[in-house]
Amino acid sequence: MKRPQPSLNDLLGMYLERYVHVKVFPEEYDYGYDSRAEASDRKQGINPMAQDYTTRVNARREQLGVTPLAEDGTAADNSSKQVAAKLAQELLLKTQDELPSYVGKTLTELDIAKICAADDDCHSTYAEIASAAVAAAQAGQPFADAIREEIIQRFGRNIAEPRTLFTLGDTLAKAVALKLTNAFLPELVPLEN
């Protein structure tokens, strides 16, 4: 039995949650930069981060309604993921009208049909494709199918490898989610510098 494909909002929501979490709670990824000695300290329940950093981070987490870091400097629970999910949904609602534009810009950057070198107006071509695909997706068609069909209709089936066409919807959703996060998240929550 074939698994149902996610909608555009489901795809974007999933990636927005990830990107928002990384942007708003970067302290939860500090362990990835630990030296061997710092990793050993964390295993023993010791936070290798400076106390003033931990104090500042915990104050910001408290303002956002998130549990302070555990003694070892890692997340004590999943409250930050819950806040990130809520922020991602707010971001998605706030940017619904922007989706065709962001998908069009991303398609232009990817230039799957390799038309931008020869066509100064390639953005308008990709903007038309994006508008049609987003409209189809918002009407209920899975985004991956909608974007693939629009590309094939415009350029033909042989424009790219089948695998590229098959993964295009997911690739676009990732890129658009990152662009939306960078553009609009600072309006929703102050970010740590």
Task: Describe the structure in brief.
The chain is mainly alpha-helical and 193 residues long. The chain contains eight helices and no strands.
- Shape field: elongated
Task: Give the terminus-to-terminus CA distance.
Answer: 47 Å
Radius of gyration: 21 Å
Share of residues in helices: 55-70%
Largest sheet: none
The number of helical segments is: 8
Low-confidence stretches: none
Overall SS class? mainly alpha
Order of helices and strands: HHHHHHHH
Number of domains: 2
Q: Got a strand count?
A: 0
Average of per-residue pLDDT values: 92
- Strand content range: under 5%
How are the SSEs ordered, and which strands pair?
Layout: H1 8-24, H2 36-43, H3 51-63, H4 79-94, H5 99-110, H6 122-138, H7 143-155, H8 162-188
Q: How would you describe the overall organization of this protein?
A:
This protein has 193 residues and is an all-alpha fold. The chain has two domains: 87 residues; 92 residues. The chain has eight helices and no strands. The protein is elongated and about 60 Å long. It starts with 7 loop residues before the first helix and ends in a 5-residue tail after the last helix. The model has no long low-confidence stretch (mean pLDDT 92).
Give keywords.
2 domains; 8 helices; mainly alpha
